[in-house]
Amino acid sequence: MKIAMLDPSLFTGRYDDGLCAGLAQAGADVTLLGRPMRATDAIVPQGYSYAPRFFRHSEALRDRLGEGRAFRLAKAAEYGLTCALGNLDAMTGADVTHVQWLPLAPADRLMLDRLKCRTALVHTVHNADAYHADSGLQGRGYRALLDRFDALIVHGDTTRAALVGQGVDPARIHVTPHPPMQLAPATPADLAAIPAPAAPRILFFGTIRPYKGVDLLVEACLSLWRAGHPFELVLAGKPFMDVAPILDPVHAAGFGDHLIPDFGFLTEPRLDAHMAKADLMVFPYRHIDSSGAFLSALHHGKAMVTSDAGMFGTLPDGVTTRVAAGNAVALAQALLPLIESAAIRQAAGARARAFGDIMGNWKDMALATIDIYRQVLRA
């Protein structure tokens, strides 16, 4: 079976890599089609091929243009032309084209219309609200694209129910749980570059966007600092929003030395180093379906605090400390015992690690995905 796997912007490279390697191990001929890799990417294809099919020209201009409006416009223009007029042989020559992300819905519609009836079309819906209501043009028309696919894959019943509520035929929706992931491990140099904690350290990592609730986390931490509780907060990742209004109150209150920002597109080993140095990790998302960041952190065995949104609300009791989404006061109350007690943190981390050990693996995910492909091809 020949599979073309699409993630044009490489939004979930670690997920793509795990699935493609699992599919290849199960006997499929897999090519992952994305953009040219950057220094921050850590994909090393095992058994499958990687083709930088998208954004080749705009990525070549990235260093010169920066990542502002000009770069985004160049990417959008190039992607639109690729979808409308580009060579689709890599997809039309495959039995199945499996799309992980649709980065620009108006352009994606053109590509999907060209592919229809020339290859089976499968899409993984990582989030029922694709870009969490902060996408603008990027996600406009995303829902209509779902009707162009022969099958949709989701990671849990929360997403399935959301799609059914949007009018998607339940017969086209398949649930395959998201396995845990591991980032490329930190090198000794990465570990040395992250200072050792001077007090219990809280870590938030990943892209920083409004729906992820970083403002709620900072508000909760500020209240605890004002109450005299010593700890550190690390924010590690690329902001896709203005973070100054969130961080300025921390500095104005005199707690800037408790805050450790590490902003930018960070390499996987650097993120892994942050996880290794942290005492607990927080995922205060306002809404989410599944969280790759959470699933990539479980093996570290650190205490986890999450909201009750999406997949977090379905976790067994004790895996994380859960609080109501959007509630900074409840978040502060949940953090306090973990800040104060190393024993409580250690016990919570052990539960998180044990849960990760029983969550399944990429082999199971690949076999379930191949079964979905076969159902589509038979139909």
TrEMBL record:
- Write down the SUPFAM superfamilies for this protein, in alphabetical order: UDP-Glycosyltransferase/glycogen phosphorylase
InterPro entries, per this entry? Glyco_trans_4-like_N
Keyword Transferase listed? The answer is yes
Keywords of the record, alphabetical order, are: Transferase
Coiled-coil segments on the chain, per record: none
Record's Gene3D superfamilies? Glycogen Phosphorylase B
* Ranges where the Glycosyltransferase subfamily 4-like N-terminal domain occurs: 17-177
Single GO molecular function: glycosyltransferase activity
Please give the Pfam families that the UniProt record associates with this protein. Glyco_trans_1_4, Glyco_trans_4_4
> Is the keyword Transferase assigned to this protein?
yes
The entry's protein name is Glycosyltransferase
